[in-house]
């Protein structure tokens, strides 16, 4: 871009740095409204056009990279983004060889780093919900760079930004998610975001690694998505050995009337999002006995993929053949490069140096500390189970009638046989009318009558 053109562009709106009040965090893709996403894409377009000319955006600010898991693209793209904005970076890329070895808790690490070392923390952690825990203790913004198999919101913003650049829109697109859909946190965040935009999803999983049921349930509850078998023959070799599923938030009435035994016919798709096997999260008996899905040049000849861009969050193994790299539809290296301008926009925004010009969404309902008894979260990889200090188990209500609740950190739904009231000392069956009258701070989730009696509860006369 010429200097003359650059000089005539409107300046990026800047505001003074945030010096008081609660910081804005990016823990989940749900923390960003659709309007904010569009505004971030517009800012990223500006940064991408001339990335070396914005060093006056965040001078004097420091970003800390706290990575408890390996990373190349996410860490380097965040650090590149901060440096291009004129700020500095602190890197702790191998947190497992730091004070963690000495027994320091995540909460203490966050308080120290955010207490004077850095103005924003970029965190990657193997436990689901770790970023949400960090946000409880951080005096500065926390950015989730991946927590276990739960979410990776900045990768999702990067993926959405690539669709914005390549397709000009996200609404109504048809996107194939292929590979390990069970453990890929990029897929989980991406699926929610696509549903929010009204895009359609074709799941082509590696056998045995389908989208988790709790995620499908959430898509159903929040977006009216009804999973239906997909007739993916037009996808050719890509879906030859997979039971494809079609998810759409737009056609509930059509799907309810659909009776074709072959499934909803997949015709043309706009993007194929391949994922690698997330072997670092597999247990010993989860290794698939079948050959992993592979996208080859021959598969790209399928009629339905004629106009589809090929995406991958990287790193890849063998799931995309090297002969696909030269195909103009393959954008995964562009996708990685575009991670820098979108993360420049995210950093400038959370540090209060860029005004997006749109209203922020209403905050999520607050979670509640579990008042008594065991930690009810069923997820062994949740931060509430892997971090033994400075973590109070929390829950968030999903529904009152019948009563349903999810973990306040990893969102996994809680299973229980009875519900107690810590105020009255009485426990009830979940369907009891009295349960609806218990104040949220007094709810106790009980596995059994024996569990209730051990904690000193007495049975309700109605139970």
TrEMBL record:
Family annotation (PROSITE patterns): CARBAMOYLTRANSFERASE
MF-aspect GO terms: amino acid binding; aspartate carbamoyltransferase activity
Domain Aspartate carbamoyltransferase regulatory subunit C-terminal: 377-415
Principal EC category: transferase
Keyword annotations: Pyrimidine biosynthesis, Transferase
EC code(s) of this entry: 2.1.3.2
Chain ranges of the Aspartate/ornithine carbamoyltransferase carbamoyl-P binding domain: 24-163
Domain of life: Bacteria
Family in the record: Belongs to the aspartate/ornithine carbamoyltransferase superfamily.
Entry protein name: Aspartate carbamoyltransferase catalytic chain
Classification lineage: Bacteria, Pseudomonadati, Planctomycetota, Planctomycetia, Planctomycetia incertae sedis
């Amino acid at each position: 871009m010429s200097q003359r053109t650059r000089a005539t562009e409107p300046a990026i709106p800047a505001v003074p740095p945030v010096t008081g009040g609660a910081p804005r965090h990016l823990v989940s893709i749900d923390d960003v409204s659709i309007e904010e996403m569009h505004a971030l894409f517009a800012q990223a377009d500006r940064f991408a056009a001339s990335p070396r000319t914005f060093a006056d955006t965040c001078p004097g600010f420091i970003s800390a990279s706290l990575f408890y898991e390996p990373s190349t693209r996410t860490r380097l793209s965040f650090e590149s983004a901060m440096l291009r904005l004129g700020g500095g970076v602190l890197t702790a890329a191998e947190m497992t060889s730091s004070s963690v070895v000495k027994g320091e808790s995540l909460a203490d690490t966050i308080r120290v780093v955010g207490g004077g070392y850095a103005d924003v923390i970029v965190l990657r952690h193997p436990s689901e919900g770790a970023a949400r825990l960090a946000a409880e203790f951080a005096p500065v913004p926390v950015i989730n760079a991946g927590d276990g198999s739960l979410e990776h919101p900045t990768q999702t913003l990067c993926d959405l930004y690539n669709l914005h650049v390549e397709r000009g829109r996200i609404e109504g697109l048809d996107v194939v998610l292929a590979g390990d859909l069970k453990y890929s946190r990029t897929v989980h965040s991406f699926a929610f975001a696509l549903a929010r935009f009204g895009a359609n999803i074709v799941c082509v999983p590696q056998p045995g690694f389908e989208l988790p049921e709790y995620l499908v349930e959430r898509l159903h509850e929040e977006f009216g998505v009804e999973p239906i078998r997909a007739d993916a023959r037009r996808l050719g070799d890509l879906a030859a050995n997979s039971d494809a599923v079609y998810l759409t938030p737009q056609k509930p009435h059509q799907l309810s009337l659909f009776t074709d035994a072959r499934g909803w016919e997949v015709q043309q798709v706009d993007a194929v999002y391949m994922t690698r096997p997330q072997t670092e999260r597999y247990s010993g008996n989860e290794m698939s006995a079948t050959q992993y899905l592979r996208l080859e040049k021959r598969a790209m000849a399928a009629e339905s993929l004629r106009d589809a861009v090929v995406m991958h969050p990287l790193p890849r193994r063998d799931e995309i053949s090297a002969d696909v790299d030269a195909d103009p539809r393959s954008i995964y290296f562009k996708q990685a490069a575009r991670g820098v301008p979108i993360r420049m926009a995210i950093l400038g925004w959370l540090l209060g140096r860029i005004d997006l010009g749109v209203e922020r969404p209403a905050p999520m309902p607050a979670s509640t500390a579990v008042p008594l008894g065991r930690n009810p979260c069923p997820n062994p990889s949740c931060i509430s189970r892997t971090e033994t200090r400075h973590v109070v188990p929390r829950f968030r209500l999903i529904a009152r009638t019948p009563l349903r609740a999810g973990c306040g950190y990893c969102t996994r739904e809680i299973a229980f046989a009875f519900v107690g009231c810590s105020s009255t000392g009485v426990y009830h069956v979940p369907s009891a009318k009295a349960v609806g009258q218990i104040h949220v701070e007094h709810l106790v989730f009980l596995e059994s009558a024996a569990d209730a009696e051990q904690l000193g509860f007495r049975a309700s006369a109605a139970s």
